[in-house]
Amino acid sequence: MFLKNIRLKDFVRSERFVAVLPYFLVFILFLIFTALYPSFANIRNITGILTVSTVFLLVAAGETFPILMGSIDLSIGTMLSSSSIVAAYLFPYGGPWMIVVAIVMGLISGIVNGSLIVALRLPSFIVTLAMMFAYRGIATSLTSGYNINIRSRSFSWISTGEIIPGVPNILLWGFIVFFIFVIISTRTKIGRYIYAIGGNESAVKRMGINVDKYRIIAFAFSGLLNGIACVLLSSYLGMAPARLGDKYLFNGLTAVIVGGTSIFGGIGGLMRTLIGVLLIGVFDNGMNLIGVDSRGQDIAKGVLLIIAISVTILSQKRGKIILTK
Amino acid sequence: MGVVESMPRKTRNIPLSKLLTPALLIAMLLFFGVQYPTFLAGSSIMNLLRQMSIRVIAAMGMSMIILMGSIDVSVGATLTFSGTIAALSIPLLGWSAIFLGIITGSVIGLSNGFIATRLKIPTFLSTIAVMGILNGASALILKGSPFNITSKIYLDITKGHLIPNVSNIIPISISVILITIFILRKTMFGRSLYLIGGDAYVSQYAGINVPLVQILAFTIHGTFAGLAGSLQASVLEAACPFMGDPYTLSVIAVVVMGGIPLSGGKGGALGTVLGTVLITILASGMNFMGVTPEVRDVAMGFLIILGASTTQDRSREISIK
Questions:
Q1: Which residues 298-317 of A are in CB contact (within 8 Å) with B?
Q2: Helices (H), strands (E): how many in chain A?
Q3: What is the DSSP letter of A236?
Q4: Predicted TM-score (pTM) of this structure
Q5: Inter-chain contact B123–A322, Cβ cutoff 8 Å?
Q6: Chain centroid, CA A64 distance in Å
Q7: Three-state SS across chain B?
Q8: Which residues of A touch B304 (CB under 8 A)?
Q9: Given this model, what pLDDT does residue B19 score?
Q10: The total number of structural domains that make up chain B
Q11: Alpha carbon distance A131, A125 (integer Å)
């Protein structure tokens, strides 16, 4: 009787399905990879997945804010590279000043993105696409494409040390920062307004809220989180990476969207991004273990991105005439 | 199509945005011409034309896409992939491998169109995913290293001289420009592109099959990109992974500097040609100055922002996303 009323097709296109699907996928992927490669489920490997995912988590969390308000930030990843290269260029031996410079660089990059979008009244994807190449130019031209090595034990302690035994610090910092931003997005005025702008921007504008200000703030969050992520990453790798931008852009975008945040804004959030990041982390790690070429992974992730976007869109726009551009 | 014909005739005052590109062009020619006297010599003008050709072919398709208000970020990857397919099939097909390259491009364009219209994904997102797929696929096929082309007859497609002293690639690109101008001005399809750029919903209610036009436009764009990729392989005498990458940004920059706003609906092919001249002179002038490609990308990025902000139609938009 009950089951008769729920049609599978409707369920697949419902908003609830989008929220639950990533958890299922993580679970299924986990089972598949464990079956194919038993040591996948080792505690060491899982710590490894979490460690790698932490940086992605911060980058993807940053991307979540612009997407929640219906914009997009294509310069994540390259912002990370440029901040870390500039910081390492100025302070080649690591240390506290490098951390400050890197985070400030990230924040400034984000504010520049947001201000350009607001001041020139251009769509965010074109501004951040252009800025993506600008940041990449900064990162590669300072060092002609080479990474900068940072040999400092105290700097690498930031990520690899263990305040809590058995748990690398990078997880701790990542968790703290992520938690702060979860609070910001759910418990503060800024967070609520970002959701509201994503839901219905012109209504928010008519209520007399300064939409431009919150748009700049959202992009600044994105830049700030990239800055923090770049400190953790350079400390973990022992170098400032010059060319990691594309990978982070692709993974970050996929994680946010696979997690179930709508690209039209207003629906989703950081907790969904968390599960999206875990999904991508498990996927990447498992694919590496069973020996799939990294280019093969790119292809698979591109397909995954397309499927994920269309699932989230179908859930929202059912029954409406939509013409996409 | 009465709507278009009954539009009021253009008034005399030319907006600032139309003067920007010619002014920049003259400034750049003067700057580089004075700085480097060899820059404007006859042989290097021929060189400039050759460099322009591939970019202008890819930009013609992109003009159609941006006229509708869509965008294609995967254009560079399409170039790479179709160039790769063409190059790898030369041992089997000889010079007609170029047609396989073109068809590959069309298929990519067709699927881009389907993803946009059937799966309802905005093109700036879907084409990013497609870019990843295509770049991954070409690197996978080529195993990460260049594939050299030795077939003389395939290289002659671009390097031969049907007209004395003029490389074949120049007449090819001119004919692509003429085809595009014809499509945009004289066909119902071309006029529909402008209408969709103006307002997609209104054109749907006016009886235009908007998804069909979009798919067709993406297919034509893909065809041109496939042609550009196959020619690029012939110019480079090899197919390399990521060989089309530099074109992604510069092709968008070309169209935007040529006066087509990102929201679509205005401008045309001749503007894009002017934009191509500008961007190519800038790119090769920077080469003369010894600037690295990365810094050139930074300049392209700022040109896109500059061009887009001067052409943007601010009268009708409610909110920016």
A1: 298-299, 301-303, 305-306, 309-310, 313-314, 317
A2: 15, 2
A3: H
A4: 0.88
A5: no
A6: 7
A7: CHHHHCCCCCCCCCCHHHHHHHHHHHHHHHHHHHHCHHHHCHHHHHHHHHHHHHHHHHHHHHHHHHHCCCCCCCHHHHHHHHHHHHHHCHHHHHHHHHHHHHHHHHHHHHHHHHHHHCCCCCHHHHHHHHHHHHHHHHHHHHCCCCEECCCHHHHHHHHCCCECCECCHHHHHHHHHHHHHHHHHHCHHHHHHHHHHHCHHHHHHCCCCHHHHHHHHHHHHHHHHHHHHHHHHHHHCEECCCCCHHHHHHHHHHHHHCCCCCCCCCCCHHHHHHHHHHHHHHHHHHHHHCCCHHHHHHHHHHHHHHHHHHHCCCCCCCCCC
A8: 126, 129-130
A9: 80
A10: 1
A11: 10
Domain enclosing residue B123, as ranges: 52-245
DSSP one-letter code for A6: S
Q: How confident is the model at residue B1 (pLDDT cuts 50, 70, 90)?
A: very low
CA distances from B92 to A139, B36, B85, B86, B87 (A): 43, 45, 12, 10, 10
Q: Is A211 on the interface with B (CB under 8 A)?
A: yes
Helix B293-311 × helix A96-120 angle, to 10°: 30
Q: Is A263 on the interface with B (CB under 8 A)?
A: yes
C-beta separation of B59 from B276 below 8 A: yes
Give chain B positions within 8 Å (CB) of A313.
119-121
For residue A66, list chain B residues with Cβ-Cβ distance below 8 A: none
What ipTM describes this predicted complex? 0.84
β-pair partners for A164: A167
Residue type, B161: H
> Which of the four pLDDT bands, split at 50, 70 and 90, describes residue B41?
confident
Is 70 exceeded by the pLDDT of residue B139? yes
Calculate mean pLDDT across residues B253-275: 89
DSSP string for residues in A66-132: HHHTT---TTTTHHHHHHHHHHHHH-TT-SHHHHHHHHHHHHHHHHHHHHHHHHHT--HHHHHHHHH
